[in-house]
Amino acid sequence: MTTLPWQHAHWAHLHSYIVQQRIPQALLITGGKGVGKRQLAEQFAAALLCAQPQADSHACGHCHSCLLLKAQTHPDFMQVQPEEGKTTIAIDQIRHLITKLTLKPQFDRYRVVILNPADKMNNAAANAFLKCLEEPNERTILVLVSDRQSKLPATILSRCQKLAIARPDKATVLTWLTAQAIKDDASVLLGLAQGAPLLALSYAKEGVVTQRNDCFKQFVAVAKRQHHPVVIAEQWLKLPEAPLLFWLTSWVVDLIKCAYQSHAEHLYNPDLHAPLQGLTQSLELKKLYQLYDLLLLSRQRLESTLNKQSLFEEILIQWSELNRSR
After folding, report:
1. Closest CA to 34 of 179, 171, 189
2. Structural domain of residue 237, as residue ranges?
3. 180 domain residue, yes or no
4. Which helix (DSSP H) or strand (DSSP E) does residue 220 occupy?
5. Is residue 116 part of a domain?
6. How far is it, in rounded angstroms, from Cα 313 to Cα 307?
7. What does the DSSP 8-state code read for residue 89?
8. Closest CA to 69 of 5, 18, 112, 116
9. What whole-number distance in Å separates Cα of residue 255 and Cα of residue 107?
10. DSSP assignment, residue 167?
11. Distance from C-alpha of 26 to C-alpha of 110, rounded to nearest angstrom
């Protein structure tokens, strides 16, 4: 498994754990979405399980343990994540894990458990998981992965070594994205992914730029009274909510920047500079800020039981009213 270009320092840190035989019983890998936390966790797990690791501690890829891991049948490797159709890790999953950990590892190396995302444990599951941290099992390493560290209980955080992965610099990521042979503009993709490399790559494969462009045309059409806000809100229900709200927020932020004559390179959406600039001609800055406030509130509401169509209707109606003077 190849180390991602922006993770060499992180791997060197994990390598030092192995070389010095100071491997933490519990390791928490944190960072934003799309920076490769899970990949790094799996890379570390492979290294710990490998019978013939390389000089830099990477797994050899061809020993019996590595082949079992590739086949997803290694008895000393476990992953805990929300079950299909569920949003949380339940207490029964943790109880099942605790039962399995009472047995000794079957191989001579380590046993590795990856919890991803660890912050999805409900309260009961988190309390039960504390037993794993308070009563370490023989040669067992717990690797927790989370992009919302603040959601984890302090009792769990205090018992973990921490490895934080920051968003890499833009030049490194653009070079890497270009090497992935993507057809879309790498810079635009990276902007839509808010600097997250793997998310940008996923967006390229899913045609997200085209989706965003279609939504932006509808956004403009609502401003020009060519489409009704309620109709567009209903259509938007078919799209992933979090990216869509980010697009809306980024357009409003860019409109504010355009009102101050910002150059295209300073926008979230530099490829939309011309149409955004055109939209600013008859907009009141004060009302734009009010729409921005609504969008920030709407992003918080995503995790509530609020009707999503009502949420988008409110945003689009306010946007339509803002453009009434057109």
Report:
1. 189
2. 207-322
3. no
4. helix 208-223
5. yes
6. 10
7. B
8. 112
9. 59
10. P
11. 13
Q: CB of 123 within 8 A of CB of 90?
A: no
Instruction: Give the residue carrying structure tokens 């509808």.
Output: 218
Whether the CB-CB separation of 273 and 251 falls below 8 Å is answered with no
Decide if 149 contacts 170 (C-beta within 8 A): no
Q: Which amino acid is at 16?
A: S
CA–CA distance, 324 with 171 (Å, rounded to integer): 42
Asked if residue 200 belongs to a domain, the reply is: no
Is the same domain home to 25 and 151? Answer: yes
* DSSP letter for each residue of 97-163: HHHHHTSPPSSSS-EEEEETTGGGB-HHHHHHHHHHHHSPPTTEEEEEEES-GGGS-HHHHTTSEEE
Q: Which residue type, as a one-letter code, is found at position 248?
A: L
Six-digit token pair at 284? 């009141």
DSSP per-residue codes, 296-317:
HHHHHHTTSS--HHHHHHHHHH
Instruction: Answer yes or no: are the C-beta atoms of 170 and 189 closer than 8 Å.
Output: no
Give the up-direction half-sphere exposure of residue 135: CA atoms within 13 A in the CB hemisphere. 7
- Number of domains within the chain: 2
- Pick from 129, 154, 132, 149: nearest CA to 141: 132
| Angle formed at CA 152 by CA 299 and CA 28, multiple of 5 degrees | 110
pLDDT tens readout for residues 147-172: 999 999 999 999 999 999 999 999 99
What pLDDT, on a 0 to 100 scale, did the predictor assign at position 181?
83
- Say if residue 132 is exposed, middle or buried (CB neighbours under 10 Å; 0-12, 13-18, 19+): buried
Whole-structure pTM value: 0.87
Express each pLDDT in 213-238 by its tens digit.
Answer: 999 999 999 999 999 999 999 999 99
**To which residue do tokens 């490399």 refer?**
197
The 3-state DSSP composition of the chain as helix, strand, coil percent (nearest 5) reads 55, 10, 35
Residue pointed to by tokens 């919890």: 115
User: Both tokens of residue 10?
Assistant: 């992180």
Read off the tokens for 300: 């918080």
